[in-house]
Specification:
heterodimer; A: mainly alpha; two-stranded antiparallel ribbon; flat; B: eleven-stranded mixed sheet; 11 strands
């Protein structure tokens, strides 16, 4: 499975990671090599086999819908790069 | 009173209980040892000496009041993806260089309540992605048995700290081998509990269907004591087992006559060092001598696919988990560009290291439109096959025994530029991770002067059984409390 330069740029855009030219080529070659090793899976017979998302047979664990204490806003915002009036601050999303 | 850092946690507990020394004295001894060897080993990202001495004083008060637990006053190392309120937690990444958690993880909360003393936050591969602790933004950790070699990873700091006497026991995390492999390469005991045994509340996420916290110690009793402290149900992690923890002490010291040991032949393939194969064969002989029955003809045919399954599923989950690092809510933030999207792309470009970017890219690809069925869904189906084969095996065997790693510790720099060669280090630890089973690595001798580890895999929530076998082996073989020959003291 050889990736093209455009494939790498497409993945990087989906992952929201800016890559420089050297990284594009490095990842193109390395990811192609890794995906090549994964080809063996295609030959495994999985007809009628259910996928495993999670190793334990636990589902829909519920608790009573009551208010629980949460983290203090000021303590949480103390780690924010930029905040204002109790909000996270970002640059304009719409131009 | 000299060299208290050489004690195991249970030996130190005895000494503390009998008033032979105080936790402050024990902690000072460990901190002196840290000062001596840390410039070489680099096992810690952040040292918390002041906090440790404060906690040691509190522990001494508990000991005096008679309210001590087996971990009261015991110096521990904590892997730096386990969040600790008020103490910087980086996950080995530049992204979290200045992150001060506003809350405690479940496991650290339990350790604090037990009166443990935190020496510092242990070095690791960035976001636990790696098998050598070279992918840390804070410099590689060195193997205390030979500083030219890696300690394994990703919990390399946690393993090296225990091996070098920079703490008595530590916590690591294991997604595909990250506790067991460094424990093996550093000559220590490392336990990856059953998925769901230990709460992941406050653990910086990598692969959420695989991640599990567990202990590294100098002997089996110490890791059992640690699991007893951190394990059990936690309503804040809905994947934790609601059943109560078994009494692990009940299993230690019990003989293993009649225990059925299976040895899957797929683990003994090309690529394994002869010295590793020889030590495992000798260890199997010891188990037989203790009365266990050993069947060397077990077959788990899907084993060979575990590597591909893991390296599709874990990066896929990581690509989703690490989407949160956007430079907005916390962590590193690059705001040099005029638009929000460019800010996010630059933040992630500059905040993540190469291996993390590579895995996010790999996972993003495997989950992307047109490839999801061929990679992610296919891997999930083969995951089912791997789990079924284990389930079948555990109808006939109580435990499965394999090597932990195909090689002993390798030189710093040897594999860091070849991602697939690095991934192959995990080939023996990945299958149990994929199935969510508990597994422990115990020291079983040396090859070319370096420690070799034996992996004992158990059935779901059967940590007691694997610790019973590990403890019986350890007592018979004498491979325990192996401090690495480093430093002058």
């Amino acid at each position: 499975m050889a990736l093209t330069r455009d494939d790498v740029l497409h993945i990087a855009r989906l992952a929201r990671i800016a890559l420089d030219e050297a990284e594009v080529e490095q990842f193109r070659a390395q990811l192609s090599g890794i995906l090549e090793h994964f080809q063996a899976l295609a030959a495994v017979d999985t007809e009628g086999i259910e996928p495993t998302a999670h190793p334990l047979p636990l589902a829909n664990v519920m608790r009573e819908d009551v208010v629980q204490p949460s983290l203090l806003r000021d303590e949480v915002l103390a780690n924010a790069p930029l905040c204002e009036d109790g909000y996270f601050r970002v640059r304009a999303v719409l131009e | 009173m000299k060299h208290l850092w050489r004690l195991t946690a249970h030996e130190a507990h005895e000494g503390l209980r009998r008033r032979e020394f105080t936790s402050v004295e024990l902690t000072r001894s460990v901190l002196e040892r840290v000062a001596e060897v840390e410039p070489t080993v680099n096992a810690y990202i952040t040292l918390t000496a002041e906090l440790a001495l404060q906690q040691a004083k509190e522990a001494d008060a508990k000991l005096a009041a008679g309210t001590a637990t087996p971990l009261t006053g015991i110096p521990v190392g904590i892997k730096d993806l386990i969040v600790t309120k008020g103490v910087r937690t980086t996950a080995g990444s530049k992204m979290l260089e200045n992150f001060i958690p506003p809350y405690d993880s479940h496991v650290y909360e339990n350790l604090r309540r037990a009166g443990a003393v935190m020496i510092g936050k242990c070095n690791m591969d960035e976001f636990a992605m790696g098998s050598s602790t070279e992918h840390s933004a804070y410099g590689p950790t060195r193997n205390p048995w030979n500083p030219a070699l890696v300690p394994g990873g990703s919990s390399g700091g946690s393993a090296a700290a225990v091996a070098a006497g920079e703490c008595l026991v530590s916590l690591g995390s294991d997604t595909g081998g990250s506790i067991r492999q460094p424990a093996a390469l550093c000559g220590q005991v490392g336990l990856d509990p059953t998925y769901g045994r230990v709460s992941r509340y406050g653990i910086i996420a990598f692969g959420s269907s695989l991640d599990q916290v567990g202990p590294i110690g100098r002997d089996v009793e110490d890791v059992a004591t640690m699991l007893d402290c951190i394990g059990g149900h936690d309503p804040r992690d809905s994947t934790t087992n609601p059943e109560p923890m078994p009494d692990l002490r009940h299993y230690l010291g019990r003989d293993i006559r009649g225990i059925r040991v299976g040895v899957p032949k797929e683990y003994f393939v090309s690529g394994m060092e002869p010295g590793v194969a020889a030590r495992i064969e000798e260890a199997l002989g010891v188990l037989e001598g203790l009365g266990a029955t050993v069947d060397r003809e077990v077959s788990l045919p899907s084993t060979e696919h575990a590597l591909a399954v893991y390296y599709i599923i874990a990066p896929s989950e990581a690509s989703a988990n690490l989407a949160r690092y956007d430079g907005v809510k916390y962590g590193f933030s690059d705001r040099s560009a005029p638009s929000m999207w460019e800010n996010i792309e630059q933040t992630r470009a500059k905040g993540f290291g190469t291996e993390v970017k590579r895995r996010i890219m790999l996972g993003t690809y495997a989950l992307s439109a047109g490839y999801y069925d061929a990679y992610y869904l296919k891997a999930q189906k083969v995951r089912t096959l791997i789990s079924r084969e284990f389930a079948e095996a555990f109808r006939k065997y109580d435990v499965l025994v394999t090597p932990t790693s195909p090689t002993v510790a390798f030189p710093v720099g040897a594999k860091v530029d070849d991602p697939f060669a690095m991934y192959l280090n995990d080939i023996y630890t990945l299958p149990a991770s994929v199935a969510g089973l508990p597994a422990v690595s115990v020291p079983c001798g040396f090859s070319e002067g370096l420690p070799v580890g034996m992996q004992i895999i158990g059935n779901f929530f059967d940590e007691g059984r694997i610790l019973q076998v590990a403890h019986a082996y350890e007592q018979a073989s004498g491979f325990k409390n192996q401090l690495a020959p480093i430093g002058d003291s």
